[in-house]
Amino acid sequence: MDMELEQKQAEIIDELVRRASTCNGEALLPIIIEATSHPSLFAFSEILALPNVAQLEGSTHSVYVDVLRLFAHGTWADYKCNAIRIPHLSPDQILKLKQLTVLTLAESNKVLPYDTLMAELDVTNVRQLEDFLINDCMYAGIVRGKLDQLKRCFEVPFAAGRDLRPGQLGNMLHTLSNW
């Protein structure tokens, strides 16, 4: 992620955290929806870590904590598996979750086959996939890469990081110390 995008994201997070920390219960829901819909926000752990957001757990609004968790750590496939329990996503949220899915796939593979991407993103043709990767991922600054139409793959030398899943930091530190 370039510095400009990182700076913009930090400002958005600070603003949303400031607003969210002054509300409780149902008043948090519009802020959670705004965060998960915002075109420039790709990290959600700071909002998820707020004590008043944690207090939604076990309430009638606990599904909104699940929505935040989905956007912090999940993918489009995770949403489809849990769509019955999670509120219907807006087009902006669907787009963001698909962008986050690309970031997740790029964490473990630097070459992403078109077939894998089309299956993971529910995209039916190569043209649609390439438009999404160019317009919604590369122009957004969250990935840099090269589309290889002959090999039918997306080569990703850079992808923005996602929020760490619980337990992931320990694994990362272990890997680094071994390295």
From TrEMBL:
Keywords: Signalosome. The keyword Nucleotide-binding does not apply. Pfam families: PCI. Signal peptide: none annotated. One of its GO terms (cellular component) is COP9 signalosome. InterPro entries: COPS7/eIF3m, PCI_dom. Residues 1-161 form the PCI domain. Belongs to the CSN7/EIF3M family. CSN7 subfamily. This is PCI domain-containing protein.
